[in-house]
Specification:
The chain is an alpha/beta fold and 285 residues long. It is built from 12 helices and 12 strands. The longest helix has 18 residues.
Length: 285
């Protein structure tokens, strides 16, 4: 799979999930993009919703206090970036040389993102059972990254049947915010790879940098982590995110894991020969 010139599988593809951690502010979004690039991420990802399609009038009218107002609708509309903001983001990412794309939550949002010619699409775990959305994304002909969080195998099977296995990357995750280690079961990465025969990534919501690197050791070819400027910021996703320094540490850990995995060939290294000659007392084989 190739995304905007990056071949997935040559090295772990690292995505900084900005999501809604920009808090509706394009300035914060650009700070997060810069932090992702500086940490060594390959891409940043946003979430795109058409508010009046994704949410019912009753959901939007429900009381909910936020910096944007007193209803859930005030909050959802306040967090949604405008077309002008996305144009600014698109230009900024081009200037920095980092890939950007998004998870569309409805078919109209796919059309919106197509205007920017995004290189791929991410299907959020919450959207895995939305056949209309899956078919609309498939119709673009672009690579698909699909999260399987909170899903049964039967649901994943049906979603994979719709999308097809060509240019598909499944992301294993647990939809817990934050996720605790005992709930993660990273061996599912190997089970998914065996069942579907497609590349597997890992989307983490834990509050450390070791678990995601362990996912790479188990075969994950891509890692996605929520990025925040500060976990203490207002907003629902910040507490399940890592900060810029932690993102940099995570990528360093991933590159170290890639280095130590090697090629799996058993051999005596040339550097081991002097040690072998010194320490082996008997060689009667």
């Amino acid at each position: 799979m190739i995304i905007a010139g990056s071949r997935i599988g040559t090295k772990t593809f690292v995505i900084a999930e900005i999501g809604i951690n920009h808090n509706g502010d394009v300035g914060i979004a650009k700070e997060l993009i810069f932090a992702a690039k500086n940490a060594g991420c390959d891409a940043v990802k946003f979430q795109k919703r058409t508010i009046d399609i994704v949410y019912t009038p009753e959901e939007l009218a429900a009381p909910r206090e936020s910096p944007f107002g007193k209803t859930n609708g005030d909050l959802k509309r306040g967090l949604e970036l405008s077309s002008e903001a996305y144009r600014e983001i698109d230009l900024y990412c081009r200037e920095l040389g980092i890939i950007w794309f998004a998870s569309p939550w409805d078919e109209s949002s796919v059309g919106f993102l197509e205007e920017f010619n995004v290189p791929c699409y991410k299907i959020a775990a919450a959207s895995l059972t939305d056949a209309g959305l899956l078919n609309r994304i498939k119709s673009t002909g672009k690579p698909v990254l699909m999260s399987v969080g909170m899903s049964e195998l039967s649901e994943i099977d049906k979603a994979v049947d719709i999308i097809g296995k060509e240019n598909l990357l499944l992301f294993y995750c647990k939809s817990l915010y934050p996720a605790t280690p005992e709930k993660l079961d990273l061996n599912v990465i190997k089970a998914l790879a065996k069942r579907y025969g497609v590349p597997i990534g890992y989307s983490g919501h834990e509050q450390d940098t070791i678990i995601s690197a362990t996912a790479v050791a188990l075969g994950a070819v891509a890692v996605e982590r929520h990025l925040t400027l500060d976990r203490g910021m207002w907003g629902s996703d910040h507490k399940a995110s890592i900060n810029p320094a932690e993102m940099k540490e995570l990528i360093e850990n991933i590159r170290l894991v890639e280095q130590v995995l090697g090629d799996g060939v058993v051999s005596c290294l040339p550097e081991e020969v002097p040690v072998k000659n010194k320490l082996r007392r008997v060689n009667s084989l």
